[in-house]
Amino acid sequence: xxxxxxxxxxxxxxxxxxxxxxxxxxxxxxxxxxxxxxxxxxxxxxxxxxxxxxxxxxxxxxxxxxxxxxxxxxxxxxxxxxxxxxxxxxxxxxxxxxxxxxxxxxxxxxxxxxxxxxxxxxxxxxxxxxxxxxxxxxxxxxxxxxxxxxxxxxxxxxxxxxxxxxxxxxxxxxxxxxxxxxxxxxxxxxxxxxxxxxxxxxxxxxxxxxxxxxxxxxxxxxxxxxxxxxxxxxxxxxxxxxxxxxxxxxxxxxxxxxxxxxxxxxxxxxxxxx
Length: 274
Hints:
The chain is α/β, with parallel strands linked by helices and 274 residues long.
């Protein structure tokens, strides 16, 4: 049996990434796969990329990795784009451009497919509250996936909220976020402690790596690790989005609530009644 740590959405948070890597080392995990978005938001993008390149066997391209490595002329950079790009070296940019869209492997007889957002769209959004059709589509291949087989188990990031969903004898796992954990369901009267959310998240898979024999066991473990948020924020003084970034890290609430409301509206849900 081998253990695979799946991490995602580090977003330049060096304190969170170091804490997760230390935990992974203590658990003697065999493989580390990263589902992208190592960059953007936090100020330590370059340092996080160095650690990801050193420690991760597989790294997938995230939407932010893609966006901030596009060959856009400098005269067209807005303030936000310029700040993020200037945190990255030319080698960082070339590395981000080279990352694959998706990766597949067998684990205890299951075809496992990993990607950042959806199998066909690096910026797509499918949450745990969604239509059966959209959820089922996560298992389907696309012209961007390594094979044209339907997956038995998919793991992705992008949402910053960890969950597990089972449909049609298949399993969906969102691994959450290492550096920017959020909960999209928020209500002042119903909310528990923010510290239940504001931790570093990742997932551990345990099974027979590379085996197509499904007679062996397979397990999933969701890991939540507190990290020194204030230490990270104390080193983000030059961050052009310092206040909104700090609020997200401290409160676990996404900065753009209109975007959240529109997501629910598109699915026939009134977010004011959640």
